[in-house]
Amino acid sequence: MNIVADENMPYVEALFGEIGEITRVNGRQLTPEQLIDVDVLLVRSVTKVNAELLSQANKLKFVGSATIGTDHIDLALLEQRNIPFTNAPGCNAAAVGEFAFIAMLELAKRFKQPLKDKVVGIVGAGNTGSALEHCLNAYGMKVLLCDPLLEEQQLSNRSATNISDKNSRQFVSLDTIIEQADIISLHVPITKTGPHKTWYLFDEAKLNQLKPHAWLVNCCRGEVIDNRALIKVKQQRDDLKLVLDVWEGEPNPMPELVPLVEFATPHIAGYSLEGKARGTYMLFEKLCEIFGLEHQKSLLNLLPKFNISQLHITDKVSETQLLTLARLVYNLADDDYLFRNSFLNNHGFDHMRKNHTHRREFSALSLVNTGHCEVDWMFKLGFSGVER
């Protein structure tokens, strides 16, 4: 079996090596000729899997994308050609949720404002938005959710069953989020049509409606915000604080926007080692299921041990101390510094993504409560550990 895989997809050899011969490729520069006599194609979001790319794919039996979104995949074409496809929904949800939460802790520290006092509006309550909601709830914060598609689905399900669901989620409108939220975090897919399209969801008008001193975090797709309008508004409103992991026109962000952002990174919010491994593993499991292949491989066995085995908690953890713990797992400032000094270099954006191999999730750090203090909320945040 001939397998073509994106060069930046981790653990492919460890998982797929016994199934076939693996060829690594540059996902942005993949050509139709490279798919001749190929059985399996493994991609990320930078590869457009469309009719042009598959024009010479004469043996393709499986396409997998180690991503949550599928806007880079022509699903109708794959169905028409009877080529099985799978993506990896939720693979990096925890990583994105923790990234956004850590960014908020960093902003709170920078501007000397208690994070816990703020209202957070989450736009998009799917896998990544829910992961952030989980972090914020664990920390005891007020959260507003906006997701008209999920809200409609919930109402439809309730109507179909004629039963009131006590555990149903509460949603508000985007206008309510803009009016009430001190922090807005974006977690929607990119859609260009329909009543709930997200392309330029935050245009100049919406950006100007943000509360004074609001924080805006984008970890989904760059074009959810009109970046030109964002530059204009930010130049007029220094009170707005921005965290951008995604950019309109990737891999070439607008250079004039970067200096206006508090924390800037090259679309790596989901790039934890756990998230990367989980994405590749989900494709591997689906391929094995489709082709009836048995395996004994484990996701946990792929991950290296964390460099800190245990951390003892002896007293109540303050917000500043929580940020210190978070930085042990992932220091956002490091990536921000690298990004600002490399994004204008030739292929600098992609080079940084390719070489991003250091980040872990909260679960990598094990906490031991030796002071009999309240740490249950920290375990709910995602840290591993035990009570003593």
UniProtKB/TrEMBL annotation:
<feature type="active site" description="Proton donor">
    <location>
        <position position="267"/>
    </location>
</feature>
<comment type="function">
    <text>Catalyzes the oxidation of erythronate-4-phosphate to 3-hydroxy-2-oxo-4-phosphonooxybutanoate.</text>
</comment>
<feature type="domain" description="D-isomer specific 2-hydroxyacid dehydrogenase NAD-binding">
    <location>
        <begin position="111"/>
        <end position="269"/>
    </location>
</feature>
<keyword id="KW-0963">Cytoplasm</keyword>
<keyword id="KW-0560">Oxidoreductase</keyword>
<feature type="binding site">
    <location>
        <position position="45"/>
    </location>
    <ligand>
        <name>substrate</name>
    </ligand>
</feature>
<feature type="active site">
    <location>
        <position position="221"/>
    </location>
</feature>
<comment type="pathway">
    <text>Cofactor biosynthesis; pyridoxine 5'-phosphate biosynthesis; pyridoxine 5'-phosphate from D-erythrose 4-phosphate: step 2/5.</text>
</comment>
<dbReference type="Pfam" id="PF00389">
    <property type="entry name" value="2-Hacid_dh"/>
</dbReference>
<feature type="domain" description="D-isomer specific 2-hydroxyacid dehydrogenase catalytic">
    <location>
        <begin position="9"/>
        <end position="290"/>
    </location>
</feature>
<keyword id="KW-0520">NAD</keyword>
<dbReference type="InterPro" id="IPR024531">
    <property type="entry name" value="Erythronate-4-P_DHase_dimer"/>
</dbReference>
<dbReference type="InterPro" id="IPR006139">
    <property type="entry name" value="D-isomer_2_OHA_DH_cat_dom"/>
</dbReference>
<dbReference type="Pfam" id="PF11890">
    <property type="entry name" value="DUF3410"/>
</dbReference>
<dbReference type="InterPro" id="IPR020921">
    <property type="entry name" value="Erythronate-4-P_DHase"/>
</dbReference>
<dbReference type="InterPro" id="IPR038251">
    <property type="entry name" value="PdxB_dimer_sf"/>
</dbReference>
<feature type="active site">
    <location>
        <position position="250"/>
    </location>
</feature>
<dbReference type="InterPro" id="IPR006140">
    <property type="entry name" value="D-isomer_DH_NAD-bd"/>
</dbReference>
<comment type="similarity">
    <text>Belongs to the D-isomer specific 2-hydroxyacid dehydrogenase family. PdxB subfamily.</text>
</comment>
<feature type="domain" description="Erythronate-4-phosphate dehydrogenase dimerisation">
    <location>
        <begin position="302"/>
        <end position="382"/>
    </location>
</feature>
<feature type="binding site">
    <location>
        <position position="245"/>
    </location>
    <ligand>
        <name>NAD(+)</name>
    </ligand>
</feature>
<comment type="subunit">
    <text>Homodimer.</text>
</comment>
<feature type="binding site">
    <location>
        <position position="147"/>
    </location>
    <ligand>
        <name>NAD(+)</name>
    </ligand>
</feature>
<keyword id="KW-0664">Pyridoxine biosynthesis</keyword>
<feature type="binding site">
    <location>
        <position position="270"/>
    </location>
    <ligand>
        <name>NAD(+)</name>
    </ligand>
</feature>
<dbReference type="Pfam" id="PF02826">
    <property type="entry name" value="2-Hacid_dh_C"/>
</dbReference>
<feature type="binding site">
    <location>
        <position position="271"/>
    </location>
    <ligand>
        <name>substrate</name>
    </ligand>
</feature>
<dbReference type="InterPro" id="IPR036291">
    <property type="entry name" value="NAD(P)-bd_dom_sf"/>
</dbReference>
<feature type="binding site">
    <location>
        <position position="67"/>
    </location>
    <ligand>
        <name>substrate</name>
    </ligand>
</feature>
<protein>
    <recommendedName>
        <fullName>Erythronate-4-phosphate dehydrogenase</fullName>
        <ecNumber>1.1.1.290</ecNumber>
    </recommendedName>
</protein>
